[in-house]
Write a structure and sequence with these properties.
Blueprint: E1 4-14, H1 19-28, E2 32-43, E3 53-55, H2 60-69, E4 74-79, H3 85-98, E5 99-107, E6 112-113, E7 116-117, H4 123-133, E8 138-139, H5 143-149, H6 160-173, E9 177-180, E10 189-196, E11 199-206, H7 215-228, H8 233-252, H9 267-275
Parallel strand pairs: 1-2, 1-4, 4-5, 5-8, 8-9
Antiparallel strand pairs: 2-3, 6-7, 9-10, 10-11
The protein binds 3-hydroxy-5-(hydroxymethyl)-2-methylisonicotinaldehyde.
The site of 3-hydroxy-5-(hydroxymethyl)-2-methylisonicotinaldehyde (PXL) has 14 residues, from strand 1 and helix 7.
Length: about 280
């Protein structure tokens, strides 16, 4: 079946993240990818200074109304970095009004990493994001975002009990299925927790020391592409993790490529995994 995905996140003109990742990655999975830009920035906000920021919140209702008029519906909707708290409410409405019946909703609460919120985000935004998580079939946070959503301390060293508590709190918030990225129980290893229909599974892989910016977006995009192509959540989570590893290795070959991950030269690896 040929499915159509809508992804809602910003355009960082330069920076290998958000829409400049989601569009090519999901398309490479063989899935039609429609976009709703949440904001336009000259670069992403992690490491560049003086970037421009055009908030597109006020364009969203009329774009949605036009789609409704044209009877345009999406088989899946995947949200990433959103530009404002008000926008989160609009996105919740978009979920309800332009999704097909059974539309798959994936929310990456892209707002924080390494224990900190991204510039421009505050507790009000976090609270609004909690409301969007309830609407998601799959929530794809990293451990920092999970800690913010649960009002829990962010830890760099933890055990299974800490992760179970995060999952229990996100479930209590109303999250259905959770793909929790960057979970490391052992030095030199990291992995992904796949919590689906109340069952915990874990895919562990090598930890690569040269972590790159933008890998969360690559991960969530590949996960969505694989899921829409009919893979199980566990297989999609595994494919996305293996693809991110390929991207990080490709990036390590280049000196000074600090702002993003070189995902383009290894898109072929993703396509192979999707078609296996
Ligand atoms: O990769 C997440 C992301 C997306 N968009 C913008 C960002 C970031 C992370 O910093 O700044 C604008």
């Amino acid at each position: 079946m040929y499915n159509k995905v809508l992804t809602i996140q910003d355009i960082s003109c330069v920076g290998q993240c958000s829409l400049t990742v989601a569009l090519p990655v999901i398309s490479a999975c063989g899935v039609e990818t429609c976009v709703l830009p949440s904001a336009v920035l000259s670069t992403h906000t992690a490491g560049f200074s003086g970037y421009t920021f055009r908030d597109l919140t006020d364009d969203m209702p009329s774009i949605k109304d036009h789609w409704i008029k044209e009877n345009i519906k999406f088989d899946a909707i995947y949200t990433g970095y959103l530009g404002s708290t008000k926008q989160i409410d609009y996105v919740a409405d978009i979920f309800d009004s332009v999704g097909t019946e059974g539309c798959l909703k994936v929310v990456d609460p892209a707002m924080a990493d390494n224990g900190k919120l991204y510039p421009g985000f505050d507790n009000e935004f976090v609270d609004a994001m909690k409301g969007l998580c309830v609407k998601a079939d799959y929530l794809v946070p990293n451990i920092t975002e999970a800690a913010f959503l649960c009002d829990m301390e962010y830890k760099t060293e933890y055990d299974r009990a800490y992760i179970d508590e995060l999952i229990a709190k996100m479930t209590a918030l109303g999250a259905k299925n959770i793909i929790l990225t960057g979970i490391s129980y052992e030095a030199g290893k990291t992995g992904v927790v796949v919590f689906e229909k109340g069952e915990y599974a874990y895919y562990e892989h090598d930890f690569l020391p040269n972590s790159c910016h933008g890998t969360g977006d690559i991960y969530a995009s590949a996960f969505v592409g694989a899921l829409v192509r009919g893979k199980s959540a566990y297989d999609a989570a595994k494919i996305a993790a293996d693809y991110v590893l390929c991207c990080i290795k490709a990036t390590a070959e280049e000196e000074n490529h600090w702002y993003g991950a070189k995902f383009e030269p290894v898109l072929g690896e993703l396509i192979k995994m999707i078609n296996e």
